[in-house]
Each structure stands twice: as C-alpha cells, then as structure tokens.
Amino acid sequence: MLPKRRLRWAAVPVIAVLMATLSGCSSYEISRAWLPGVTGVTNHTERIVDLWVGSWIVLYAVGLIAWGLMFWAIIVYRRRKGDAEIPPQLRYNMPIEALFTVIPFILVVGFFALTTRDMDIIERPVASDYRIEVVGKQWAWDFNYTNDNVFDSGIQLQEVTEEAEKELPTLYLPVNKSIQFDLVSRDVIHSFWVIDFLYKKDVFPGRVNKMYLTPQVIGDYKGKCAELCGEFHSMMLFNVKVVSQEDYDARMAELAAMGNVGQLTADPNDPNNFNRNNNLPGDNPKSEG
Description:
Number of helices: 6
Number of domains: 3
Strand content: 15-25%
Shape: elongated
Oligomer: single chain
Radius of gyration: 27 Å
Helix content: 25-40%
C-alpha cells in the first residue's frame, strides 16, 4: 500500500479533473480556453481564439516544466532525517542562468510577433458594406446608421432587470456584411465591447476610432462599456442583433417611420444632437431621449 503522503500527491490530478468535470465545463468551452461565444461569430473571432489558446498551451508547458523542476529539487534535495551538515553551497550555474534568460526572451519575442500579426489583420481598414457611427455617452449608446440616414438613441438603464434590459439600445447588424464602426464619445472615455465578438476598443472624446468586422452568425448578443466611466458605468449596456438583410432593412424602415431620420450630431442647434440633456432619466425617460 502506498504511504499516505504519496496518496495525497496522487490525488491532486484526480481532484483537478473532478473539479473541471463537476463545474459543468464542456469540451467545447475547454477547447476555446473558456472564451465566450460560438464558432465564427465574426470573421475575426477564430483568429483571436487561436492566439488565446495557443498562448495558454505554451504558457502551461513552460509552467509544467518550471513546476516539475521546482518539485524535483524540493524532493531530491530535501533535508533527510539524520542530516546534520549544511550541503555544498553553489553560487552560479551559468547554463541554467543562460537558459532562464534565453527562453523568456524567445517567448516574449514570439508572443509579440504573433500578436502583431493578428492585430495587423484585425485592424486593417477594409472597404465596408455599411458604416455605423457609435456614440458613447454617460451612460448609454447612440447609433447612427449612416448608409440609411437613420439613428437610434439609447436611454440610461434605470435598473438591471430582465424586463429593463429589453429596453436597452439595440444595435442591428446585417449578417455576412462587412461593417465599419466609427466610435466617438460625447463626454469621457468609454469602451465599445460586444462580448461574443472577443474584441473591444476605447471610445475617446474628440477622436474617431474605427473597427472593421463581418458578423457571420445570426443571433442576439450582449454589449457593454468596458472602461470605468463614472457612477453608472455598470448600467451602460446595449443589445446586438445580427439579422438577415431583410430584417435589417425592415428595422431601418421602422426607425424612419418613428421619425429617427437624419444623424445625431454634436451641434447644440441641431434637434438631433446627442448632448447630455437628451439622456437624463425622468418620469418618462423615452420622452427625453
């Protein structure tokens, strides 16, 4: 029979496997290293997943080697019963020190090169089918659909409930159409993040940041501000609907019928301005947005 100490060590991997199994993690989630979303939500997500998963594989391999060497040294060179003398003291081991310098350098250069390659592809401007201006504001979102000359203005969420979230501003995107997002802020720094798209970008006042992507899977998605922007930052949420071309056109026609014709601007003399007063919650928030 194995000694109790060895049994405890043998139980560690068994417990780790049980924890992963009992936590409800599916093989699909594990294959994506627990990133959210489904396969191919946009034309960039799988590239991001590959970079993420590949990085963790390398890091875990390095970790296992480092942990293995550490525990090997702890076990092999541990003080045994009856040892009374101090073991030989070594000051330098040049091969090991060179190894611990070269390996991290190679890893850093490799991660930098792979990240730069993928960022260059993701950030590369492309000719887009649609251009949508996204306006971040304390604490909601406005959307200018420039191709169709209509807009949708959001109102600050009053409470985080299932019913209230149905009233959030909803960004409509046509499936399999390339989209250019122009990201602007009317007040402070925000961050535009559609969670399942696995990519986010800061939104600055006085500056236009751009994103390019093609949504590829019809469905409903969640978005939020990912930059601490004030008291009600946690309520700065929005919905995203990736829909067919027919449903997208129907939504544009619906916005036009609601009177949301034109574009929201920063001009205080323009009735379609997105100044701060248009977002104040009140007895009837819809009338103030």
